[in-house]
Amino acid sequence: MDELTVYLQGADGLFPSEPSFEYFFHLMDERERAEEHAIVHVEVVDLQGDGMADLVLSKMEGGITNAKNKILVYIKNNDELNPASPDRVIANVKGAAGGIVHDANGDGRGDIIVPSIRMGVLLYINMFISRQVTVTFAFYLMNEENSYPGKPATSRKGISWGPCRG
User: Fold this and answer.
1) Cis bond leading into 163, ω under 30°?
2) Separation CA 1–CA 79 (nearest Å)
3) pLDDT tens digit sequence for 94-112
4) Low-confidence residues of the chain, pLDDT below 50?
């Protein structure tokens, strides 16, 4: 689902019965909810290394020939989280599987790596015949201002994984 419920632990070590916060991101429309044509993955992670919980949401939608992904990044800076105002949107990444948070350049910040494969029926047939798949990784590196550029800093293409078992 495209919502997040937070229960903050009290000083007594117990969690309350009612949520401390509830966030609704409204990434899926009614058709997507009813037909389950989209998946939203929410990752709570400290992107800046400041001890604050940041969010990376990935919405994956479409089918075998038209899959795409939309990644929304929310960076917590002591202010209230506003689901309608992400800090960065990485949109319409075709054939993507969602964002992976990892410090790719060793600077202590969470970078976002987006793996993707080219889409198409002929490409899938070739994949099953050759038992290999070529994956492209796009690297969105968090900069010194704790934000992400609109385009990937770099990408690695032509990485083949195989043999596939199927």
Assistant:
1) yes
2) 24
3) 766 778 899 999 999 999 9
4) 166
